[in-house]
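Forwarding the complex inputs:
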Amino acid sequence: MMTNPLFDIENLSLRLGGRQIYDGFSGALPNGGLTGIVGPNGCGKSTLLRCLAGVQQPDSGRIVFQGYPLAGLAAVERAQFMAYLPQNPPLVPDMSVAGLVAKGRTPWRKAFRPLSGTDHDAIESALAATGLSDLRTTRLSALSGGQRQRVWLALALAQDTPVILLDEPTAFLDLQHQLSLLRLLRQLADEQGRSIVMVLHELTLAGRFCDHLLGLRDGRLVCAGPAEQAITPQTVAALYDLQADVANDPIFGKPVVFPRE
Amino acid sequence: MRRAVLLPAMLLVLVWLALAGGRNWLGPSALVQGLLDRQDFLIYGLRLPRLMIAVGAGMALGMAGALMQGLTRNPLATPDIIGLTQGAGLGFAIALLLDLPLLAGAACGAGIAMLCVALLAQGRGALAFVLFGIGIGATAAAATTVLLVLAPDAKAARAMIWLSGSLARADLATAGWVWLVLLAGGALVALRAHRLGLLWLGDDVMASLGVDLSRMRVLVLGLVTALTAASTLAVGPIGFVAFVAAPLARAVTGAQAPAIWHAALTGACLLVAADLVARLIAPVAVFPTGLVMGVIGAPYLIFFLWRDRQEAR
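Prediction (whole assembly, two chains):
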């Protein structure tokens, strides 16, 4: 059993669109560091993240967030503890980069007050961390897909929460940008002590960057633990029905999957 | 910042034109003299009430449009297109025939239409909102016509003028109602300004930024219903103001969506301008302001649909 987990998920059940997503799902996510949720398409990774973010209510069961039942937190309190970025950020009407990032401050703002000094600091450091400082006045329509992805991440960072939940933040990015984004998240976890939970597709990248992995299949927990424990030929077979070898990366010493089919 | 003064300045110019212009043009000195003399019939009896209603109803419609478009993330989902205006019209017609309070009739009509659309479209997405709204609006409009055919002539005539969207019967009491609802709505919008700034970002992002979604929906739908009912009571079911105001405001000032206040000012400008045009076209006859808005708005709707396919929002 994990001591002081970030999230403790107890007996979660959820039916969505006529499909039973979870039937008594239980598990725990560790506090601090990078936690990756992996698994095949439709295994319930994204829905799990939505439940953790409080955006989706489970039918039964409960989620305990740092000792408090998540359902008991008001929407604003929850937003001061955790930021959540959905898989496909919505298309929004054209506005400036800084304008969108500033909206991340909403849970902290008081009625009738303009942005405070703290707000401006949080926006600035979010822009700096995502390398968008020079693009602050640029309009969203003038950005590339990768840059737009970083703007949404900056919005989540500006929310200034100890916990950040990201749904496939590397989707639609080329390899170079995937790496720079994951390095940035690694840095946020190491230097600012934030807990980051993300859904990832790419097992090798997940193994290299995450401290802890959860493998899901058909709404059940298949494996959990550090990359070395969570990625083995047995777990890959159980997750993806795939014969694969797993060997350690010569440079990073992390497991890499070699499919044998 | 320079663009921020554009809309208020434009509204001021239009206000001046609306007070000075008409069958008898007043020069600056005559206008000031008229404003100082509370007995002046031309200013206080005719033009000022009409102007107050045009500004109040225009602002209310602009706000309602911006709120509704933001909540549904759909530029088509404005009170005039999703049937609220028609619902208010039906409520007004029933109240007129039964000698009930007209504001209550319009408010109930808009409220019931909103409820029907919201219940029918629940969980089916923004497009369903628009489609069911068009259906509800057409139903309400047809029912209104049936009522008017059956109604006694005098009442039917009064209702017909109102239904075509005319400001000719403007009086200060009606203007007072519109402004009361507008001020109350405006105060709520100001109080919740930061939350409302998240409209257009969609349910998931709003929820993750601490918005209680069900409370937000009740707030926005309630505001839209009240603002639509008040403005419809005053000027009749004038279309397109709510639909055009917010996108136009954003295009002119570059303001960030949802641009609720910009939309309010733009709505006021549009309605004052349309009313001025109506008065100048037919100084003696009762020329419906709604017709002028239709002439401006309908081509814009076509332009909008044509352009919308080309650019991603």
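Residues 105 and 111 of chain A are 12 Å apart (CA to CA).
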